[in-house]
Amino acid sequence: MYKNIRTVFALLAMIGAGNMVSAQQKIAKDHVNPWIKPLPPLPPIASLTEGEWMKGDLHVHSSYSSEGGYDPQRHPISKIKAFAKSVGFGFIGITDHDNHVLGNTANNTWADTAFKSDNSLLMLYGAEWTTTRGHGNTFSATPYDHQKFYDVRDQRDADIAKVKKELGIHLSANHPAGPKDHFGFSYDLVDAMEVWNSCLWTKNANSNLIWEDMLSSGRRITGRGGSDVHRPSDVNYIGTPTTWVFAAKHTSQGVVDALLNGRVSVSANPYAPRVEFFADINQDGKMDMMMGDNAKAEGKPVKFRVELKGNVKADSTYTIHVIKNGSDFGDYKMQGKNPVVEFSDSPRAIQRSYYRLTVEGPSTDYPEVPKSAKVTGNMVALSNPIYFNFDPKF
Ligand SMILES: [Zn+2]
Ligand SMILES: [Zn+2]
To answer: What pTM does this model have?
Structure first.
């Protein structure tokens, strides 16, 4: 008892000391941060209906990712494509390590007779930019001079940015927090990042922390998935996880554009439900924006809607975890055949805000990769953010 009273007094003394310090702090109430100012009109939001959801894997290695030279046994492109088609993929990014061919991806992976887009599987031109400071996947709808991008890898970030701009490529940071090969470049170079690498969701916590930091800085960096498979496996293989894009056009360029504009979500595997995230910004009951989109907020209420699509387990409960500006906003439960959850909030005027989601629930079997679902556990999907007051010229 005596000890408890002593503890209470000690606590009161600490609280008192804290108050005294804050009473002495001088805060200029009329200080204006010149960086926070109204934006000019933002570009209109693209159609929410004209387009198509396509799924794929954006981090797959073929037989060309082999230090000892091309290894036909390892993972031929023809096998990758056949598998991708068998699980309903619309696109794939075969991203071989460029250092294994000293940057000459154009005459290796892309020159393979199997490396050809057709209407049922769109191929992205790219490579895993494999450098001392980390790895990043490049994506392009058309061939580009990858050798040039490989050659600049050990130069200053400003020089890398110049070459990237000249080549017109999309760059996506891979496994940004490591633990091996973390991304040690400026995120000014980056359009997207791999926030879900491999079927082992739990190892992505620190990458998600970096993502939050970058979103908080005003960068609209798209979060995407990537299995990072190097050879056939029954644990981690093509589609663990699966990235979904809402592409305005059924072309490789449509996929790259969607990746850039963030109309993207990630699901545990090709058969797991897809999360879609919308907002009604003018209270007319009609959704005006989806994940990846950016609108002005004037402090008025916005209604958000979350939908789970596809292979939903109607007898199970899914938990939607909403993150606002890097902090927990709330958890919502959803059930039924076509689960929908709505919530409201008033994103602040002038200053930036963003909202994003993770979805947890029952795992979905992936018979072609039978041990993956157990490793992934109850992580079902994640969305990209809905943005308010982000400067499109960042
Ligand atoms: Zn890598
Ligand atoms: Zn890789």
So the answer is: 0.93
